[in-house]
Design goal:
The protein has helices spanning 2-10, 12-39, 43-55, 70-82, 87-109, 114-125, 128-133, 140-159, 165-178, 186-195, 204-228, 233-241, 262-265, 267-295, 300-315, 317-333, 339-357, 365-384, 397-414, 424-451, 453-472, 486-493, 520-532, 565-568; strands at residues 418-419, 422-423, 481-483, 498-499, 502-504, 507-509, 537-540, 550-556, 559-564. It is mainly alpha-helical. The strands form 3 sheets. A 5-stranded mixed β-sheet has the order 4-3-7-9-8.
């Protein structure tokens, strides 16, 4: 009992703050869950739901197994008990988000004090880009939150006990099975292991961890081999669909954006005004630092640091030259070569830079480089790939949070007004930002539903048109149905709904394009496609579509149901 009380006393602030964090994040998640269930799923979520139904043995006829299996697998467990619905995948997404926020707190705690770690975890959890997609049922937030734990266990394995590798690599694999692009986290993990390899006593634990991670993927291989005769079914399909070259993409595609600086330019809107406030605090600290150095009469310590750095550069001219060359080649390579080559150049540059700074013995330099590499690996990947979606910034959010907290802690220490050896400035700035984050989140959450009103309407229109078709044609499941929004229609009708390709300017496009202004020739192609495949019905988002062999029979909002004319007679 005495020991228990002692533990409580020594870790009181930690217990209070992590409890408060869980409480605050849980409330935010609950509100987001209410909002997202009101809006309804997005396109990709319907694909994941259909895969979950397939895994639950309740195949609705439509599925897209290109999607990573982990979230559908978890969802399928609930489907087996509760039947098919959209809310389970949103609930799972929310629960993983809460776990990820706690994981980020613990990861930050390895570098910072309790208060800074709390602020960082709360900051991450209230980024506008994060709040927009919490409980949406997509895989982005879930995969990132699982990745956080993979990074946390990796640091524990390096700093405390290498047996943690038995968790870090399997968790990294789960992140990959949540979203395939998360495979990139293996690069900073291996980089971190490399720069600390000499300090890892039981190196075999690394191999054991890797082995355990591959054990996790074996059931996936077995499942797809049994059902499709190909153990790599989902992976080959995904990487095949993702191997499209830049030359194959045109400016008509909705998410086509070759701007290399897209995420940099839009970062302020992704992280919100509160995070921008942290950046300004860091900038203030930098100015104070410069002014102190200018007016400081006693510059002996600063002079010592400068001399040490100059000596370091002098003694490592060759390394420094290689660093400059590798960085220049990296910059030139962006969008000109395969992204993996750019990533390789990135880690060569980071390795050279780390070895240059290592003799200066900065505290936790390896951890700083670890997290910084995490940020850069995804920034490069998503920046060079010409298909861009603003939600991809989610993959940079945790590492950016660490970077912001690193600067924030440095600034408040620099500006520190101390009372009884406590940094009053740090407490004041942190408290102010925490209150601001909570209040701004409370006021901004309702805007998510307003922003997504078109999606909400589309979901409702899809439900309504499905209900009407069921009443109109009791034998609809025996008919050939095409749809522009086949994941929506397939889920609501509980049948295989054929994918209608997009005909635009003499092109056939598999994904959405930027406008729906169709020529007469485009309309002919839609009509010919339907006639050729003997389609009975067509659910279209095109309100002004004129088809020779099909007539509109029902409209809800932006959706129109067409029926073959000979069926009407």
């Amino acid at each position: 009992m005495f020991k228990f009380n002692s533990v409580i006393k020594n870790h009181l602030s930690f217990i209070i703050l992590i409890t408060l964090l869980i409480a605050v994040i849980s409330v935010i998640t609950y509100k987001c869950f209410q909002i997202q269930t009101s809006i309804g799923p997005i396109w990709d979520t319907y694909d994941l739901l259909s895969e979950a139904a397939f895994l639950a043995g309740q195949n609705i006829g439509y599925y897209d197994l290109v999607r990573p299996p982990f979230i559908p697998f978890l969802t399928s467990i609930i489907f087996r008990f509760e039947g098919l619905s959209t809310w389970p995948i949103m609930l799972i997404d929310g629960l993983i988000f809460i776990l990820g926020s706690v994981g980020l707190f613990l990861l930050l705690k390895l570098r910072f004090d309790n208060l800074t770690s709390f602020l960082g975890a709360l900051l991450f959890s209230t980024f506008p880009i994060i709040l927009t997609f919490v409980c949406s049922g997509l895989t982005d937030i879930s995969s990132v939150c699982i990745s956080i734990w993979a990074f946390y266990f990796t640091v524990l394995a390096v700093k405390k006990d290498s047996k943690w590798f038995c968790l870090s690599f399997p968790v990294a694999m789960i992140s990959f099975l949540t979203r395939f692009a998360s495979a990139l986290i293996i690069l900073p993990i291996l980089f971190y292991i490399l720069i600390n390899l000499k300090d890892i006593i039981r190196k075999k634990d690394i191999l054991i961890g890797i082995l355990f991670s591959f054990v996790l993927i074996l059931p996936v291989f077995w499942f797809f081999n049994v059902n499709f005769g190909d153990p790599f079914y989902t992976f080959s399909s995904f990487f095949g669909s993702s191997s499209r070259s830049i030359s194959e993409l045109t400016g008509t595609l909705f998410f086509y954006n070759p701007d290399l600086l897209y995420f940099v330019k839009n970062m302020p809107s992704f992280i919100g005004p509160q995070a921008i406030g942290v950046v300004l605090v860091i900038f203030l600290g930098f100015l104070v630092y410069l002014l102190k150095n200018i007016f400081n009469k006693n510059k002996s310590m600063e002079k010592t640091h400068n001399e040490s750095f100059k000596l370091l550069l002098k003694e490592n001219k060759l390394k420094f030259s290689f660093l400059i060359i590798s960085v220049l080649i990296l910059i030139v390579s962006l969008q000109r070569v395969h992204y993996l080559l750019s990533e390789a150049l990135l880690f060569v540059s980071l390795y050279l830079l780390y070895n240059l700074f290592k003799p200066l013995k900065f505290k936790d330099l390896d951890l700083d480089f670890f997290i910084f590499s995490w940020f850069l690996v995804f920034l490069i990947f998503h920046s060079v790939y010409v298909i861009k979606d603003y939600r991809y910034f989610i993959y940079m959010a945790p590492s950016l949070t660490y970077i912001l907290m690193r600067g924030f802690k440095w600034t408040t220490s620099l500006l520190g007004i101390k009372i009884k050896n406590r940094n009053l400035t740090h407490y004041l700035f942190s408290g102010f930002l925490i209150i601001l984050l909570i209040l701004s989140t409370y006021t901004s959450l309702p805007s998510i539903e307003e922003t997504n009103k078109d999606l909400k309407q589309l979901n409702q229109d899809s439900i309504n048109i499905g209900i009407w078709l069921v009443d109109h044609d009791p034998n609809y499941q025996t008919k050939v149905i095409y749809s522009d929004i086949w994941p929506y229609s397939g889920w609501h009708l509980k049948m295989n709904v054929n994918k209608m390709p997009q005909f635009h300017d003499n092109q056939v496009i598999d994904v959405g394009f930027k406008d729906y202004n169709l020529t007469t020739q485009d309309m002919w192609k839609y009509n010919d496609k339907l006639v050729l495949d003997h389609a009975d019905y067509y659910i279209s988002r095109k309100t002004d579509l004129t088809l020779t062999n099909y007539m509109p029979i029902k409209q809800y909002g932006t959706l129109t149901l067409y029926q073959r004319t000979d069926e009407l007679n």
